[in-house]
UniProtKB/TrEMBL annotation:
Residues 52-127 form the POTRA domain. GO terms for cellular component: outer membrane. It comes from Hymenobacter luteus. Keywords: Signal. This is Outer membrane protein assembly factor BamA. It holds the Pfam family POTRA. InterPro entries: BamA/TamA_POTRA. Gene3D superfamilies: membrane protein fhac, membrane protein fhac: a member of the omp85/tpsb transporter family. The keyword RNA-binding does not apply.
Length: 486
């Protein structure tokens, strides 16, 4: 009752412009909220104070999310002292950390002052957290090839993919996959970013079993060759992982994972590619991975300002003979800048260094898998080491605002924000590979591309990208993606 009454009173208070103090301009965040600057109101209420004491902090709207999750993101507590000149930026920085938990459609902050003491209110609108998604896909490369097969209805994958976010209201996540049919997959993962009052230490665990009737077994002309077996499975993989998480805030996370892997390919795979694995058709290994991420972007789904840095060290120790151990170093850094008005600039660089005396085909992956020079989507570039530089200029083309859908009562779905951005980009990449097959010409060669794109951002962190890219090989095409490219 107290929080609801306070929310009502905040709506009746005079606006910041009536205080006679100029408002501080903040960049409009991608969640498209229209907010008054919070410190102007406080200055109007307590104009003669250089510092304020935080008397009360209230949270409204968190019906599922526990307050301990929200308290862990704030860098101040009740009883702390805040400086008047930086109050607005401090409240906004904390608001963005709450929003970047990716648990809410929107987060609002407001503050009132009396005799130098602050009452701060964070109001959140929770998302829908359970997503069961049916799986139904064709096991062939396209619809035409599937339709031409007499056993077409036996060549489908079906099942259920379930994600439960904010499990128990603690920002935990459960993910399960049950996929049957032509390709089989059974997976269960659990992620808890932090426990306790300060939510500093968390855990992660998972198990995966996968086998498929198709496998990309080699690279020729910088494209993958695929082997399909109707009555056998050319690849079978299973692994189990367990790890610790050290989490300062949503912006800084370090993960340490250890996992056991068991993989096996059919004799047909080794017949076509004897080096798919080193040492035979089966291998087992332990992997130790340390990943540290610093994410200071204004929003995680579609960043416009801020920076992102990630460093990863992986050690793979083989339990089967024939393959030497592998040490892999990966790094990534991205910077996002506001150029003024509706223009923004982004630049990102990433690199990989793989240290080993010999490497199997399955481990010799560089660009075209997770990292990509846009415009080279049809190719994969194998190699131990790679570097990638991407940059782009973004123009905020159209902010539709929030569309209200009639007939839906729940606020989790009936309000859809839509923002369109126009983007131009240029990518440069390079893969270093000591030994290259004569049919593959893209390793040890500078890769470059440029293009234009239209980005659509909406709720639940969905980003849809339609882009035209043209590469150095004078090839161009339209591509559709579902994530922010840098």
């Amino acid at each position: 009752m107290l929080s609801c009454f306070l929310t009502f009173l905040l709506g009746l208070l005079p606006s910041a412009s009536s205080a006679g103090r100029p408002e501080v301009a903040y960049a409009s965040p991608p969640d498209s909220l229209r907010r008054a600057v919070t410190d102007s109101l406080v200055y109007a209420q307590c104009p003669d104070y250089a510092t304020y004491r935080v008397a009360t902090i209230l949270f409204v709207g968190n019906k599922v999310t526990r307050e301990t999750v929200l308290w862990a993101e704030l860098d101040f507590r009740e009883g702390d002292t805040l400086q008047a000149p930086t109050l607005g930026k401090r409240l906004e920085a904390n608001r963005r950390r709450l929003f970047n938990l990716q648990l809410f459609h929107q987060v609002l902050v407001q503050a009132v002052c009396r005799n130098g003491e602050l009452t701060i209110l964070y109001s959140v609108q929770e998302r829908w957290y359970t997503f069961p998604v049916p799986i139904f896909s064709l096991a062939d490369r396209n619809f035409r090839s599937w339709l031409d097969r007499p056993d077409r209805w036996q060549r489908v994958d079906y099942g259920l993919h379930v994600v439960r976010r904010n499990f128990r209201g603690r920002n935990e996540q459960l993910l399960g996959n049950l996929q049957l049919g032509f390709n089989r997959k059974y997976e269960l993962f659990y992620e808890a970013p932090g426990y306790g009052r300060r939510r500093r230490i968390g855990v992660g665990a998972g198990f995966s079993y996968y086998r498929s009737r198709a496998l990309d077994y080699a690279t020729r002309q910088d494209k993958l060759l695929n082997l399909r077996q109707e009555k056998a499975f050319p690849i079978e993989r299973q692994y189990a992982s367990l790890g610790l998480r050290w989490r300062r805030t949503v912006q800084h996370l370090t993960a340490l994972d250890v996992s056991y892997h068991r993989e096996q390919v059919s004799d047909s795979v080794l017949y076509y590619n004897p080096t798919y694995y080193l040492g035979g058709p089966r291998r087992e290994y332990l992997e130790l991975a340390l990943v540290s991420t610093l994410n200071q972007r204004n929003t995680f789904a579609y960043p416009l300002t801020g920076q992102y840095a990630q460093a990863a060290l992986t050690y793979r120790a083989f339990l089967t003979s024939g393959a030497p151990d592998i040490v892999t170093l990966r790094g990534r850094y991205a910077r996002y800048l506001a150029l003024g008005g509706p223009f923004y600039y982004s630049i990102g660089a990433q690199a990989q260094f793989r240290l080993t005396s010999r490497v199997s085909y399955a481990d010799n992956r560089a660009l075209g898998y997770e990292a990509l020079v846009r415009g080279y989507d049809a190719y994969v570039i194998d190699g131990r080491h790679y570097g990638l530089l991407q940059q782009g200029v973004t123009y905020k083309l159209l902010d539709v605002g929030r569309l209200h859908l009639k007939g839906l009562r729940t606020a989790k779905f009936n309000t859809i924000p839509l923002v369109f951005y126009l983007n131009t980009f240029a990518d440069v990449g390079y893969v270093r590979q000591p030994t290259v097959l004569p049919t593959n010409r893209l390793p040890n060669r500078l890769l470059a591309s440029g293009g234009v794109a239209l980005h659509l951002t909406t709720y639940y962190d969905w980003v849809f990208t339609l882009e035209y890219a043209r590469n150095r090989e004078q090839q161009g095409g339209l591509f559709f993606r579902t994530q922010f490219p840098i």
